[in-house]
Amino acid sequence: MRVNLTVNGRPQQADDVWEGESLLYVLRERMGLPGSKNACEQGECGSCTVRLDGVPVCSCLVAAGQAEGREVVTVEGLAEFARRRAEGGAAPGARAGQSASLDAARRWQAGGTDSQTGEHIELAPIQQAFIDAGAVQCGFCTPGLLVAADEMLERHPDPSDEDVREALSGNLCRCTGYETIMDAVRLAAARRSEEARA
Amino acid sequence: MDFLRPADWEEALAAKAEHPTAVPIAGGTDVMVEINFGHRRPEYLMDLGRVGDLAEWEVGEDCVRLGAAVPYTRIMEHLSAELPGLALASHTVASPQIRNRGGVGGNLGTASPAGDAHPALLAAGAEVEAASVRGVRRIPIDAFYTGVKRNALEPDELIRAVHVAKADGPQQFSKVGTRNAMVIAVCAFGLALHPATRTVRTGIGSAAPTPVRAGAAEEFLNAVLEEGGLWENGKIVTPSAVKRFAELCAAACDPIDDVRGTADYRRHAVGVMARRTFTWTWESYRGARRTTEGAV
Fold it and tell me: Is A170 within 8 Å of chain B by CB?
């Protein structure tokens, strides 16, 4: 079957999609967006977390056909998504990616597909905070954590540790022991409130 | 496999009548796991995501009509006053990502004894609204679970909503697991005080082939509360009566040994949860009474 959806602000179409296929598979294998990771395939690990119409979900548990006509934001589009949100160009939350122009989508895509992908591209504040706090070790859980943490900060700009722990409770990390991840989220929140004061 | 996309409820019922083997999918948090692991290859997968009113709820005078696909996140955020037991249970479901997608209809459709919503629905008193092209019926929650992962639905029926009595007293939910998130219940316990009818209701999860009420325990406690005039005088329930209640709750279990825990452990834990949840709710009821009386 054919599935039409918007990914990171850009209309996308996938053909010959198997009816039982997950949104994660479509993103990774059909659209060349391997940022969302495939690990447990049962919603336990959160490494496939994306935003579906603004809501964080495990993309491995969304049937591709259920994403028909919907808006998806993956970690690949997070920097652009955060930039637009900061500029007030899109309402945070549901369907925020909708107003992304085709130009913006192309600009995002032009970021490169080689081993240098991502360099010289401005990161989302949460991404920069993860790097600065040393919250990335093997990196496998990172994309899901970034999407989940970014959404949490959208709802709770000044989160308590409980807010952070709860929001990230569906994302497993086997390397860090979570402390540096907590540091990263606190750092992102602190930078944001500093900016707001400035 | 065929992917059915009914645009509204009538289309969904017609599709289910035409293809009774069709597996409904809403949040997908159960169905997709089975498909991802190759445990299930349904002939038809029917996406209910387009049937908008399934994700809505109405708060009536005595009852909440909760759409089958209202995500647990919404229940926690919006219905904690009306359905406190179910809201607490919802908060223990898996993780935010799962709670954003999964809902009570899926718990009921899957009818796993470990479903987190069941003890709360049993304790609160609920009815499942099942519909088909033949009509609509309401199945009392006590009659809904018919076996391990089996329920009272006919092949052409879909769950549209669940009607849950609004809380008329304190409710509690307890769950045993190895951590606070992403955990399938080793066992779970729901308890609701119903001062309006002078009754206590319970629900036990993951400790029998189906979710069950502890009927004998409820009868015992109802008699203790009645005989002592405790609903009226708000006195404490004696520790020996609470202990007996807990023992009867444990006796209502019919658990198995499995990877998550032994039958003995489950029985013991259900007894502990029964004692704790009753003590919490009864103290809360007495506290509320005192506050009310103080105000008069």
Answer: yes
B279: left (phi over 0), alpha (psi -120 to 50) or beta: alpha
pLDDT tops 80 at residue A99? no
Shortest distance between the Cα of A109 and any Cα of chain B, in A, equals 27
pLDDT score of A93: 46
Contact criterion met (CB < 8 Å) for B33 and A49: no
- Beta-bridged to residue B63, according to DSSP, are B165
- Contact A56/B96, CB-based, under 8 Å? yes
Rounded to 5°, angle at Cα A11 from A7 and A12: 75
In-domain check, residue B253: yes
Final residue of a structural domain among A109, A141, A172 = A109
For B172-223, the pLDDT digits (tens) are 999 999 988 999 999 999 999 999 999 999 999 999 999 999 999 999 999 9
Judge contact between A62 and A74, C-beta under 8 A. no
Q: Does A94 touch chain B (CB under 8 A)?
A: no
Pick from B25, B40, B50, B95 the residue to mutate for testing the A interface (most A CBs within 10 Å). Answer: B95
> Both A98 and A144 in a single domain?
no
Entry pTM: 0.93
Residue B175 lies in a domain: yes
Residue corresponding to tokens 């899109």: A90
